């Protein structure tokens, strides 16, 4: 596992009128404040990334569809430098993935249905706070 990544099992409450899925609370591991929440959709087989946030901590949950999340550690002083970590998130594999700043991340839509990724971020979006690379700039096999 890449240094600094937190994977948290989340509570699901099954109810005949509709289920409840917990996401995050102030006392949760990985919660370091609230800046904004946003939802991103990812079309099947499409890939969004590579993106590195310099200050933002991501708290990712997938409430619909299936999303493959790949993290790459290029931090020079990290014990996990050069490693990748993959995780599939979905309603069935319901976890919160906390990603600290300074790691590259990319997402791939897996499900035929709508793939929805929720991010609860500790700071508001600021385009100058992140860096992007083309997919080919980090050697990773998406197949």
What is the CATH C level class, in words? Mainly Beta
What summary fits the major beta sheet? 5 strands, antiparallel
The ordered H/E elements are: EEEEEEEEEEEE
Strand content: 35-45%
CA-based shape = globular
Distance between the termini: 21 Å
Number of helices: 0
What CATH calls the topology is Jelly Rolls
Architecture, according to CATH?
Sandwich
- Strand neighbour order, sheet with most strands: 1-9-6-11-4
Task: Please state the average pLDDT score.
Answer: 96
**Could you state the CATH homologous superfamily?**
Jelly Rolls
Which class best fits the helix and strand makeup? mainly beta
Number of strands: 12
Can you give the helix content as a percent range? under 10%
What does the secondary structure layout of this molecule look like, with pairings?
Layout: E1 6-9, E2 12-13, E3 20-21, E4 36-42, E5 47-53, E6 58-64, E7 66-72, E8 84-90, E9 95-99, E10 104-109, E11 115-121, E12 130-132
Antiparallel strand pairs: 1-9, 2-3, 4-11, 5-10, 5-12, 6-9, 6-11, 7-8, 7-10
Question: What does the model show?
Answer:
This protein has a single domain, classed as Jelly Rolls (Sandwich). Helix content is 0%, strand content 45%. The protein is built from no helices and twelve strands. It has a five-stranded antiparallel beta sheet, with no helix packed on it. A five-stranded antiparallel beta sheet has the order 8-7-10-5-12, with no helix packed on it. It is globular. The two termini are 21 Å apart.
